[in-house]
Write a structure and sequence with these properties.
glycerol metabolism, single chain, alpha/beta, 511 residues, globular, FGGY_N, 21% strand, 5-stranded mixed β-sheet
Amino acid sequence: MADNTYVGAIDQGTTGTRFMVFDHSGKVIANAYEKHEQIYPEPGWVEHDAMEIWENTKSVINTALDDALIDAEQLEAIGVTNQRETTVMWDKDTGSPIGNAIVWQDRRTTDRIETLEADGKKDDVQQKTGLEPDAYFSATKAEWLLDNTDPIKLQRSRPEDVRDRAEEGEILFGTIDTWVIYNLTGNHITDVTNASRTMLFNIHDMEWDDELLEEFNVPRATLPEVRPSSDEDTYGSTDADGFLGAEVPVAGALGDQQAALFGQTCFDAGDAKNTYGTGSFMLMNTGDEAVMSEHGLLTTVGFQRSGQPVQYALEGSIFITGAAIEWLEDMTLISDAMESEKLARSVDSTDGVYFVPAFAGLGAPHWDQRARGTIVGMTRGTRREHIVRATLESIAFQTRDVAEAMEEDSGIDLQSLRVDGGAVKNNFLCQLQSNIINTDIARPVVDETTALGSAYAAGLAVGYWDTIDELRDNWQIDREFSPKDTSDVDARYDRWQEAVKRSLDWARGGD
């Protein structure tokens, strides 16, 4: 391995796309980011333009390399990490999407899930996929796209042409990793972690499930090949005549939360991390056993290396955390995210205010698609500082909801939680989180662990790193937070649970 070679990571997230370059020590050498448009055609609908995402991907790669004076030939490999569940379908002949990508937050298929549950099929789906049936996952999004795409836009004359062409493999399905890999290499591939989030994949047999494909009416021919997250055979290489001007292997891919698990070096059963992004996602490695949850968590694929057994994880998916801070900005209660810490510290408490940010329903462990955002406990004396502090507390309380469920399911007491994501720069939030879950919090030096995880997966595949012990040696703590001032935490948590009950089932049918 030459001293001047690196591994690149494409981190395609909900609000934007980042490209980062890492050296052998895991240090960030280059970094570029661009936002993309959030499209809201109807209440509860969220879409992205997949072509905009691809154009931004090319742009951030070139920008990062140019700014750091790195030639593409110096990249040993590229890894991909992505917003999970977001679904795109495209025309194999033209490479053009058949419509906007449907984002993981989108709720348009809520009725479809309720029909599934009414038909008594919920448990079967859950046993096969490890997932709580929800509009969150990809299956009903793919079904909706196939049923509702206007064939005129595809220059076809008959509505059934879309489904007919999907049956022939001429319309391709993918989560965003698949879309990016396809545009990088020309190959139609996903990894085991992203496949496990589609609600079409049997996580025990590790293959697409015929009964699920029939239930959701998704043709097998439209699906990508499933590969390990770190693949010595690689997914293909970039085109030397393409935008990079070099052949670079694309050798690793993980959904963003599994990538963070990998980047935080949670390689052993019992290791856990929480990522604070648009939502928050807490994962605990359960080893080679798929522990089925009895407390509202998801069982998911954690990662797989070439020639190695699949590693599973328990996951608590919280839909809205960082997005709640963005909402404070939208409502002009704060000018930027960093102001939230200052304002929260300026008051001793929320003065009895509780905020349940169920803008897209509630995920684990409640799983209420019709819950909606709720603020309770306000008086005439309530000020913005109280609401801001209640917003930060809502992030910590939701994490405790998940942590308690995780301990019940796994039988493992959480001794320490590794954290990452944009919100962990907020020291007040980190200390608050430690107090509320009564557990040590460890914040690493490199907090962009989703990108780092995908870089690690790709680098291991091509021999840039030889062993996972090298990766463990790279992991360094920036700061630790230990519980303090916990005297009234349980009482406040009980009140939080009351506030959650008031948010449930608000958006009833027809609202």
